[in-house]
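Dissemination and training. As part of the outreach component of the grant, students in the summer workshop were shown how a complex can be specified as a set of sequence lines and then modelled as a single object. The example used during the hands-on session is reproduced here so that future cohorts can follow it. Participants entered these lines:
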Amino acid sequence: MSEDIILDIQNVTKRFPGVTALSDVSIQIKRGEIHGLCGENGAGKSTLIKILSGVYPYGTYEGKVIYDGSELKLEGGSIRQAITEGIAIVYQELTLVPNMTVGENVFLGKEPSENGAINWDKLYAETRDILRKYQLDVAPQAVVRHLGVGKMQMVEIAKALSENAKILILDEPTSALAEAEIEKLMEILETLRSHGVTCIYITHKLDEFFRITDSVTVLRDGKTVTTQPTGNLTKEKLVSYMVGREMKERFPKGNRRPGEVIFEVNDLHAIDPNDNSRHVLNGVSFDLRRGEILGIAGLMGSGRTELVTTIFGEYGKITHGTIKLEGQEVEMTSASDAMHKGVSLVPEDRKRQGLVLMQSILKNISLANLDQFSKFFRIDADAELAASLQQAKNLAIKAPNLLVACDSLSGGNQQKVVIAKWLLSNPKVLIMDDPTRGIDVGAKYEIYKLMNELTEKGVSIIMISSELEEVLGMSDRVMVMHEGASTRILDIREANQERIMALATGIAEN
Amino acid sequence: MAVSTDTGSKKSSTGLMGELGKRFRSNMQTYTIILALVAIWIFFAILTGGACLQPQNVSNLFRQMTVTSFLAIGMVFVIVTGNIDLSVGKLAGFVSVVVAYFQANIWYNLIPNQPYVAAVLSIIIGLGVGVLFGVMQGYMISFLQVPSFIVTLAGMFILTGLILLVTQGKTIPANQAGFDLIAQGYLPPLVGWIIAAIVVVILFWNMTRSRQRKRQHGFELPSIALDLATTIFYSLLVIAYVWVVNQYKGVQVPVLLLAVAAVIMSYIANNTRFGRYAYAIGGNREAARLSGINIRRSIFLIFILMGLLAGIAGIVLASYVGYGTIAAGQGYELDAIASAILGGTSTLGGVGTVFGALIGSLIMTSLTTGLQMLNVQPAWQYLVKGIVLVLAVYADVAFKKNR
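and obtained this result:
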């Protein structure tokens, strides 16, 4: 073969007790290319990366990995060896020490030293050189804590490159980035490509494959489906490779007939409770009808989450504006207050905010509604169980029983538990903050169906989403936010991706 | 149907042993610690030629564990919410000297010939001091947001000073007639048997009622044999205990008090919102907050409860030793923390049981008294306690890793 292959994964199979995570996977990655890796959750992407980084050492899998001409034989115990070999990974969750400077982070664990003392001048000079070479716009002496997520990502990349990485694996690098920062990251990747660094790029956002990658490999159920030059692919093709069938209908059609206005927010302004000078909301107005889904779109940092947590009484201090529920002006001072008034919030991050992971499904579902089952001080365990079982049935939570701890469930099922918890209080208004983040296509579909059923029963839903297609596929109307303010509410018939993006980035004023 | 209507065990095709195995696995930690306790007892029984299992020694062992056990069952709640209380030992000590002071210097002059009234008033004051201190510390921790480690460390210093101020460096007697009964009293054998009978009846009644209600809701029932076996096992334990201590002087009053307190605390942990909230706060504070739980209020109440239990511990301590001393309660907080952790309470929060803490406390006391009976130097008691604690937690960590 004439092509220069830097990484040749040959028939790799990785078995765990009970499951085969990878079966006979073969991928060839050319030197200097950006190679996309694509697949649903559980398709085997992370297992593959763990093999390349030495988390699953040589010998624990079948097949061969040929790296730069010889077989890769990593010992277990530490990912150090992979880094020395030139394979570096930038993870989804950043792994920097916030209280240290950029330079200290870049050289963490390999500080240049003389006679046992760190040579600080050398450390900062070398950091500066690396940052310059790849056009990363960060100051070597800046403290990481003060940087934005986008810059932290740059530091993370610099850290990987400081080891003379030949292959850089980026695991969902844009999941926490705003559009402008994604743009910057794409530029950085271009620079890396021009310096001959090979990248493996993993993302859930399909359009990024088309923006940056040279070729894409699709994994499904632990098998390689195909590797193709990006130019030969379309989004539709990619999706059909991922799910193994043509996705005719990603968003189930509901039979919604929005009724009268039930919830109104009028010119809401709010400040950060911990920092009175920071304005988090600068005028948000919208109304919500009975049985309607109102989508909220906007970039990261546009105030979407701040808006709903403020409405829910758990974040911003309202300085101006009114909230009306069923025509009555209401003030929600805490989560329990909001719930009693009929407003529920499915929070953004199910692991951090939604679930007590170590506890059972049962305890998680009933947690927010124990007063329903309590007589004086005592919890009526039977009533609690009966009600939770009913919820689990309605939502088709897949688990052997309700005493299973939530940390053993899949992302989709965890999300269903969170939703079950919030439905138990019989909300009139259900706020869902990114309800399908990080769950696979099948589970997404079930959640969409559930949303349709709820609205048909007269529940009104406010849905925040980072995926424009989801907003367009599920909403009756779309409110776009920009810098803490609502710009316009679009009827679904007049909304499209371009219009929403124009409003969200502030290019278009209404 | 994705969810089976069954909550605990799977279809009974696996049979009694299968169910037993499942129950064992889900409560692995509790059973491991009970096995450790039995092993320690057997070890000492062999070395002392059976002397440590004589009724008098068993009776004393359980009586000795009471003071730190009151602290340990409160400490479970504190640690479960992700907090710590370093002041409880000194708080119990302070309560004991205050109670002694009132008996020796105040009631003696105010109401000279009424020992029982004096005893009751002393108890009320002791509990009041404990609760008041709990309120103050709890307020600072929950509402002023000062870390519990700092607040209670400061509390420990302050209480040490207060103890010195009250005692003026002297030992104060606390030996009113009646007051000594709290820690040194015994129930007549017949009363012991009546209590045992009541407990057994309650155990069986509970079992039938729980089965009845499960049936009402249409849930699958655990096998009757297993339920019966469990209930009979616990009943036999209670009967055996009363039989043994009745051969000495009878059921010990402080042990009875501890049992009542433990049952109440266990009930609070499992069957009330307050208890559930404590576990949720320790498990995931953010999720608890967004679930509408008033975190500050919960933690405030937990420190008040801890203060109340420290008050009880202090009263029992005063009655047990018969006077208040400057060293009262020294180091008890560490025994209480160790007991809770030995009993499976996670220092990360969210996990722990009252029952486990009691077993943990029993292990710690067994080690002390067992080594004392063997005339081992006190230095070794500390070494052994330290090693057992680390080993127990390491075994737990290793077990969880290999699961």
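Chain A has three domains: 5-243, 249-342+427-510, 356-426. Students were then asked to discuss how this feature might be tested experimentally.
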